[in-house]
Amino acid sequence: MKVIEKIGDMQSLIKDEKLKGNVVGFVPTMGYLHEGHQQLMRKAREECDIVVTSIFVNPLQFGPNEDFDRYPRDERRDKRIADEEQNDVLFFPHVREMYPTNQSVKMTVHRRVNVMCGKSREGHFDGVVTVLAKLFNIVMPDRVYMGMKDAQQVAVVDALIEDYNFPIKLIPVETVREVDQLAKSSRNVYLSPTERKEAPYLYQALLHGKSLIEEGESSPQAVIEAVSYFIKTNTHGKIDYVDVLSYPQLEPLDECGGEMILALAVNFEKARLIDNVLVSIH
């Protein structure tokens, strides 16, 4: 596995691979790799000739009161995991390499962002699309692999690729879960022992809401209230949001139907957890 830190070196390597006709798969991450990331790498390995994983903790997507400095980092471990998962290239740029100067052009996301995480994290997805647009131009992938745990991010990236005509196929990959069904996350390490025992109830709450919809509940608000009650009854977490929306458009619904997402975010003392399920009613 090659570890590359410079943009020019990354572009040069990929151009050579493209000339050989190789299909490039890309897994963008912020590091502190876990099984969710590994599943993305494995999927890319199955489907592509060349697999590139990037590790870059992007400062643009952290708000002023968020955890950029606290975000977990373990460079040595990340390199070992990426190598074990048979990545061909690990792109590991420094902040000064990605953002050497103040940017002259600013990207702003107008749709699919004023709900869910975007509602309470103003500017977050502007930072996401900015860094991904840069990474897409640097890595030049044919396929990009992203986890459905952050389904809003998948929806925003879907719009980015479509709006800006990137010749890339987006491959959403199912959320990887612990044995007790808690979604894998780099932030799980911040849960106290008590919170860790309570956290699996978030996914159970989502399954409860999904069952209500599949059994005929047509009111999104009724589903939201039922899921919220389940969370409040079984955890000490503070609900940031519970939403029922169309997917991937992420528009509010008058009644349940079509392709939907049931999503939540819950704040524990030192960790904010997100999770979701997709529901299809036709």
Q: Tags for this entry?
A:
39% helix, Rossmann fold, alpha/beta, 282 residues, Pantoate--beta-alanine Ligase, Chain: A,domain 2, three-stranded antiparallel beta sheet, 10 helices, six-stranded parallel beta sheet
CATH superfamily (homologous) name of the largest domain: HUPs
Low-confidence stretches: none
User: What is the number of strand segments?
Assistant: 9
Query: What general form does the structure show?
Result: globular
Ends apart, CA distance between termini: 46 Å
In percent, how much strand structure appears in the residues? 15-25%
Radius of gyration: 19 Å
Spell the H/E element sequence.
Answer: EHEHEHEHHHEHEHHHEEE
Q: What count of helical segments does DSSP give?
A: 10
**For the residues shown, what is the average pLDDT?**
95
The name of the CATH architecture of the largest domain is 3-Layer(aba) Sandwich
Strand order in the sheet with the most strands: 1-4-3-2-5-6
Which secondary-structure class do the elements indicate?
alpha/beta
Number of domains: 2
CATH topology name of the largest domain, in short, is: Rossmann fold
- How much helicity do the residues have? 25-40%
Task: State the major sheet.
Answer: 6 strands, parallel
What's the CATH first level of the largest domain? Alpha Beta
